[in-house]
DNA sequence: GATGGCCTAATTAGGACTTCCGGTGT
DNA sequence: CACACCGGAAGTCCTAATTAGGCCAT
């Protein structure tokens, strides 16, 4: 059974019947979502009694959030060749053996996995400087718009999570988004570091750099300007913009259950949640414990509303469709910028793929450990989900234990945004 | 003994930060 | 004054590519 703070990261590779997917067959493999039980993501931060506990609590939050000792969390180790069974409404695609070069992807992908939020080309095409030794192939670089890494790089078990990936992770994590980091304009990839210190500490924790601070992390972010991964939003502090986003990004928005970080965050029953200010610190995560308990007993995650978005692939978690209801929205063949499969992201929809437990059981545990984790989770949730889905059928969307949204009393359903021109610039 | 194939360890290049710094703007 | 922000410079860490060497078969 999954332990608290367990996350499941897996690619939802589908060598399954793609015909089931209809027009979605070209959807990317990486789908993103948290494990249904939000308590699995407990940040474990005690309620803040004073601002002086910021550091400790932030670090504790980082511990719990990232679960750094757990290779199953952000280590990307499951970016390997994991094949998952798929339900009809789950969009997956093969992610294995993707050979990429600076000239482009060679192999599995014939559709762009990412969409650009800019028209401007990447800033830097870093040229390797050869000296002395015989010329050799370039080492794979971070998946910047034009510089794409080999998939295999992420299979080595290293802690190779780039900062931009990390930020995307946070932006898809309801425990930190919008509390520490939030979208200010998800349509164009603009986000804000609501609590820059906490985010920096989380990053430092992940990188095993206890001295990490926003100044240092900010330097790394500034290097992203040159590489065309990020832009700075002029005139707004702590606000940055991704130049590219995965199409199946989960956008956690400030729904009814989630107040803007700058607003009064009174979801914490204890009243100690002072998550408002930028530097209020990670103690704000303490409220997660509260919410974790709530959500444990009430699987529907009422605190957020989020949606998938993409120029064509936008899907709304808040209103899950049944497999037969999905509308085949074709995906525009825009230029691939960042390979989506590099995202250390989990998918709730992937979890859904595992609902087909019979298929899961046919897998070999040795090669699909995380799959089995998921399967176990799903098995334990199966009954509840069935009940929840019944509720969906009867009364609109409710978030099921596998992460689908439910129309809880406070849940606002976020409609899938309108298609955003890829050339949209930040506002 | 020469050659070739395979495997492994060591070396090297280079990417992605990290650290430090001085400076500017709000 | 604090903080955000900028970018140069140098350093660290890690990983992939390359090379060298050993072993074995022919």
UniProtKB/TrEMBL annotation:
Gene: ELF1
Gene Ontology CC: one annotated term: nucleus
Compositionally biased intervals (Acidic residues): 259-281
Chain residue ranges for the region called Disordered: 114-143, 255-337, 391-427
Presence of the UniProt keyword 4Fe-4S in the record: no
Single Gene Ontology BP annotation: regulation of development, heterochronic
Bias kind Polar residues: ranges: 410-427
Bias type Basic residues, positions: 128-139
Gene3D superfamilies cross-referenced by the UniProt entry: Winged helix-like DNA-binding domain superfamily/Winged helix DNA-binding domain
Compartment(s): Nucleus
Location of the ETS domain: 161-243
Name assigned to this protein: ETS-related transcription factor Elf-1
Protein family membership: Belongs to the ETS family.
Main localization of the protein described in the UniProt heading: nucleus
């Amino acid at each position: 059974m999954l332990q608290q703070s367990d996350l499941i990261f897996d690619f939802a590779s589908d060598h399954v019947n793609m015909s089931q997917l209809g027009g979605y067959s070209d959807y990317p493999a990486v789908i993103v979502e948290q494990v249904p039980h939000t308590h699995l993501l407990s940040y474990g931060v005690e309620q803040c009694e004073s601002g002086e506990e910021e550091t400790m609590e932030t670090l504790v939050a980082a511990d719990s959030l990232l679960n750094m000792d757990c290779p199953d969390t952000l280590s990307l180790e499951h970016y390997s060749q994991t094949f998952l069974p798929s339900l009809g409404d789950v969009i997956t695609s093969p992610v294995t053996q993707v050979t990429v070069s600076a000239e482009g992807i060679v192999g599995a992908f014939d559709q762009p996995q990412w969409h650009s939020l800019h028209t401007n080309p990447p800033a830097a095409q870093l040229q390797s400087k050869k000296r002395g030794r015989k010329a050799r192939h370039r080492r794979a670089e971070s998946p910047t718009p034009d510089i794409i890494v080999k998939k295999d790089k992420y299979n080595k078990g290293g802690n190779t999570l780039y900062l931009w990936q990390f930020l995307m992770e946070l932006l898809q994590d309801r425990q930190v988004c919008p509390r520490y980091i939030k979208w200010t304009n998800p349509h164009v990839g603009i986000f804000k570091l609501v609590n820059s210190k906490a985010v920096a500490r989380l990053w430092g924790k992940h990188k095993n750099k206890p001295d990490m601070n926003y100044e240092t992390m900010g330097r790394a972010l500034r290097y992203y300007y040159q590489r065309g991964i990020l832009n700075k939003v002029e005139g707004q502090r702590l606000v940055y913009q991704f130049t590219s986003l995965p199409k199946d990004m989960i956008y956690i928005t400030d729904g009814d259950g989630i107040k803007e970080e700058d607003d009064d965050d009174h979801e914490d029953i204890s009243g100690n949640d002072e998550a408002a200010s930028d530097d209020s610190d990670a103690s704000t995560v303490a409220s997660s414990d509260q919410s974790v308990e709530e959500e444990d007993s009430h699987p529907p995650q009422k605190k957020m509303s989020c949606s998938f978005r993409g120029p064509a692939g936008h899907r709304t978690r808040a209103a899950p469709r049944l497999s037969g209801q999905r509308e085949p929205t074709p995906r525009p063949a825009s230029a691939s910028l960042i390979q989506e499969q590099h995202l250390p992201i989990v998918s709730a929809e992937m979890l859904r793929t595992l609902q087909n437990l019979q298929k899961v059981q046919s897998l070999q545990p040795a090669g699909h450990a995380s799959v089995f984790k998921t399967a176990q989770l799903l098995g334990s949730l199966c009954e509840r989900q069935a009940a929840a889905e019944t509720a969906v059928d009867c009364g609109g969307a409710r978030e099921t234990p596998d992460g689908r949204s439910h129309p809880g009393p406070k849940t606002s359903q976020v409609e899938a945004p309108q298609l955003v021109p890829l050339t949209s610039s930040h506002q």
